[in-house]
Design a protein that fits this description.
There is one protein chain. By secondary structure, the chain is mainly beta. The strands form 14 sheets. Strands 31, 33, 34, 36, 37, 41, 43 and 44 form an eight-stranded antiparallel beta sheet that branches. Strands 2, 3, 4, 5 and 6 form a five-stranded antiparallel beta sheet that branches. It is flat. The two termini are 44 Å apart. Bound molecules: calcium ion (3 copies). The site of one calcium ion has 7 residues, from loops. InterPro entries: 6-blade_b-propeller_TolB-like, Glc/Sorbosone_DH, Quinoprot_gluc/sorb_DH_b-prop. This is Glucose / Sorbosone dehydrogenase.
Length: 824
Amino acid sequence: MNLLRCLAFSLFLPMGLWGAFPSLYLKNICDGQIHAPTNITHAGDGSGRLFICDQIGKIYIFSQGMLQPKLFLDLSASGLNRVFVGTNLNSYSERGLLGMTFHPDYEHPFAPGYRRFYVNYTAPASTATDHSSDPQNCVTVIAEFRVSEDDPNLADVTTERLVLSYGQPQPNHNGGQLAFGPDKMLYIGSGDGGSANDNAEGHTGGSGTSSPGRVTGTLGNAQDKTKLLGKILRIDPLGTNGPGGAYGIPTDNPFANSVGMERKEIYAWGLRNPWRLSFDTPEEGPARLFCADVGQNDVEEVDLITSGGNYGWRVKEGSLDFDNTTPYGGGSLIGPIAEYAHPSASLEGTDSMPKYGTSITGGYVYRGTAIPGLQGKYLFGDYAENGIGNGGGVLLGLEETTPGVFALSEVTPFNSLPASARIYAFGEDEAGELYIAVKTTSGVTSLSGGRPAGILYKVQPVAETPIQLTAVADNTLYEPNGSVTSNAKGIYLFAGKTGESANYKVRRAVMKFDVSGLPSDVTFTSAALRLHLNMQVGQDFTMNLHRLSESWGEGTSNAGSPGGNGITATTGDATWNHRFYNTTAWTNPGGDYEAQASASYVIGSSLSDPYPTWQSAKLLEDVLDWKATPSSNQGWILIGDENQTFTAQRFSSRENTTAGNRPTLIVNYASAPSPTHYEAWLAEHFPEEPVGFYLDPYGDLDNDGIFNLHEYAFGRSPWVKDEEPGLTTSTQPGSAGSTLHILRFWRDSAATDLSYQLQTSADLVTWKTIATSLAGTTAIGSNGGVVLSDTPGTGTLRLVTVRETLAAGANSRRFVRLHVTRSY
Ligand SMILES: [Ca+2]
Ligand SMILES: [Ca+2]
Ligand SMILES: [Ca+2]
């Protein structure tokens, strides 16, 4: 069988060292708890919850950084149509719980879609409502459920409603993705029914045998528009005019009004095994449906799905002929927007394709905010570069270089995936941030290190660490104006054209940085040159930085302040005509440099930014070149607008008395984000637990009366019985018969995820907050509470002392509590 396998080809643009994709950090947020995570989605209800499907039929909720212990829905053993994965859960399977999506109106109480969600799973054979592809190995079920009336974290299993089901002749190629479009219609990815070549039994025109080999000229299921297999289907799950009345046919489906035998559910066809599809809904422009279609032995592809489109299988595999004798009813086949070949591909035409993997896994166009460099790019992957059984999942990306044209590249994350990773799925949260679900074993429930082998990653930006270097040489080249001038040791640099005389003259600044000390074992992410604009003329001028190709000197000349006309050059100075005065001339007066600018900057017409900064990928390329080959480092020359007069600008030089204003090269390198304070606390006290394990905030593991969240808040151990409570009270007499309540609590100033609210009540009903510390800040009193002190204790702990004064005659009994909340 061919499983998820396939490859696609695509236009490959060679990228520079930095690539088109930003450096990404894959943060492990949950491992060792889910067997085979096939789907990650959210309810769109603002709860921040992620819903994770496990192939075996369970749906988990991941929230507050933990996999919640209570299942949202369990279809693994019961339900109207029990999930069927196969008879041996320790072997590879493409069956099971494969998709889930919430109705877009899930949160709207007066809309029909309220509290409804949909799942796609395979059930045991013989329960299908559609028998057009018998024999059946299993049955694809699309079912509706509702969340329970009184618990948003629990689906009501008794509400299952069968929407649509159809038989699968073989165990593989079940598609399974569900996604609502902006039109509120449900899109369903459907595979060709399985086996190989789309011509085994149960496949239209096939030989009727289980393994006919690569028969030519047969129609297959994907090209057979009377079948639901090998398609993108589009239905209205709340409608009733479809076959059986459990769903509706959208009136604008391509065959909605056909009098022929075509299935009216079809939106697009010619798919082999659409393994993950997603809508991109940008703020501007139309939504688009991206679909990854798994190929057979040679080519994997990404398609943009449009209504009535024919994506080619089994005529084509990617853009290559698979069986060009397949009758596909004319019309044009729509080619992929990107494709790549299997490492083992042998089909003619695959030579020119990049080779990345064996089975594509579709992802999402990034529309989040945390990673600006990923905005608008499609992040996806391949299940296993080393073959289905061996893993080696790779991350891939598409960048739309011009409308409709996509550049494919491998995305190398800052931290690599496990070598045995199979990329099962990508997911998106409510904020548009992306997740990756992988599994490190082949069998559905095969364990890794004694635990379930699924891992969830959140895609995050890398942290960046800057290194700042000050210029080691700089100078100004003055176009000859009667004398040979320079300004090696002056406190200013000049660039642009002056207006000093009838012969308006040009100045150019040269500067050099020693990059040999930059670390070698890191990934650099950016380079920028920052100058201090000391004085400027009042217009917008573009100033370009070019890489110098010849060496030059900085002698001892000093034109003083301001020095705009330079002074007679000294031995070894760079001048307009000389690299080294008075021995070596430039080949080209005014400096020998690369024609292509390394970076540009428009100096603004006001001094709004006194620190103009040149930054580009080319600038980083220059720096890395110089680091690799120090003898090639001649620095940059800054060239202003020389087509007009009065464009010269004045910058601080490396000799400037204000150190912070000297020419500075800022090079950033990628680093792993630091663990949060809470993550460090968990790692210290629960070293054996998997990432994302559930810790009950209100549990008390050591029975010391301090529940787990407070153990963290007080900087305590949840395993060591603490004698001293983290919150203490005492009273003392105040003046004029009053009573002073003195309250003390510990807070952790490094726990910026916590808020502490000290609250009192006379009756256990009404509480008032008398002191608050937010995000690690000093406590502040309120409602009569006075913070007497907030003093350092061990490490980052602080002891807060608060006084509450009760007037004479008042009820002096008070209840006290410390309300701690943690943000995620
Ligand atoms: Ca200098
Ligand atoms: Ca405790
Ligand atoms: Ca304790």
